[in-house]
Write the structure tokens for this entry.
Amino acid sequence: MPVRITPQDTPNPNARRVVLDRPVQEGSRGRYFTDPTACDDPLARTILEVEGVVGVMLLPNSVTVSKANEASWERLQPLVVQRIHRYFGS
């Protein structure tokens, strides 16, 4: 079954929350990543590899993505959603 993804705005215009219909990680503590080469999580790493993404926070059922000031959500959001779908095999 394809993963259902719901992007949401946040109070920070450089961050978007992406809510999923399945667990992103185990446990309730969030994990934040900024460097794809030092990242030990494959989902966070694949999102961080998108040009313009500067941070990824993994929570139990969502991912918050931070972008560079000059990057646009119009370009980034479809790329992030595509990588999440690919990660979950949908």
